[in-house]
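Subject: sequence -> structure tokens, single chain

Hey, anyone have a minute? Need the predicted structure for the following. Not urgent.
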Amino acid sequence: MDTITKILSKILTAHYGVKYGIAMLAYMALVRHLRYKRINNLLKKYPDPTVPLRDLEVAREVSSAVSDLEFPYLNMVAQEYALFKTLAIPSISKILAATRQFTGDRFKRADDTTYLFLEMNEHYSRNLKRVMTEGKVDENEVQNDIARHEIAIQKLNFLHGQYNIKQEDFLYTLALLIVEPDIFINQFEWRPLTELERNSLYAIWINNGKKMGIKNIPETKAELIAWSEEYERTHSRFAKSNRVIADVTLDILLSLIPSFTRGLGRMAASALCTPLLREAFGLSPPPKTVSALVHGALWARAAFIKYFMLPRRLPLVRTAARANEEGKYVPNFHKYKPVYSDGYRVEDLGPEKFVGKCPISFRPSGITPGTSTQQRKRGQV
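Reply:
Had a minute. Here:
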């Protein structure tokens, strides 16, 4: 005890620089401890990392932590990169170019895809956030979350059914949505994914893929990765449509930065592409200094998060917890140019010409998708 007292006395009488240094180290140690607390608790709760492969509810719990609590930003970027990467397959880019959706309101096209994916995957996090902020489970909204998930899948299936898309292209896209978040997070985040988390993300997307009717999905994650790598090697090649759609997509991604920096932004994007991907898009390799700066900045970000940023308490959920008075879901935030500032109905997402034409069959008892909480309280359902 006397030894501890002497140490504390020396600290209190030390130079202010020493005090600040000790305080900083203590803060960094605390942040690191708190940052690992959530994943350590999950690993204790589920010591068998294969549980998510057999229990979809466990997969939802763990993947929700990955996507909306632990790595919300890079997980989102990785999914955008995965969709961007599919454009290097000419059979995909030619269909997208033929729809002419990228020549009109490109931001609407991007948001339609984003919100359909989020409505498919954010229902666990929406419920978790409601419980954490309201202190109770809203059973009506839990059922409506299920409806929103099913309607998003049905709408996506309907939209895809309007075009002659190869099953292999569906499967390749599904594979990238599993593989790329793993790669991005392991390479650029403050810690790598655990096997429990990898299996959870895999289980969630495989479940989505089966509901979308994707055929010939390999039996294991390793087989799916091997298949996607081979498909990319044999089918990724330059086509004019690749470059056209890639340019539009980069314009959307770079709309967040000042216009005078977008040339540098394109070089940064190229730095994150593989040589095969750059060749398929007709992109020039970036200068080595730019590549080093991009990777260095991402690694510095990871270190800053790991030691200086306290962990997120609430899930970062973009989709609305409830419908508004008009029965629309108003996003909690917009990443790019606001498209649905007044909200949307899940069944209406997609090109305007298909609004009202998708046969939605999923209707939970007592709840109509797009019906607001206030209407249900008044019995108007």
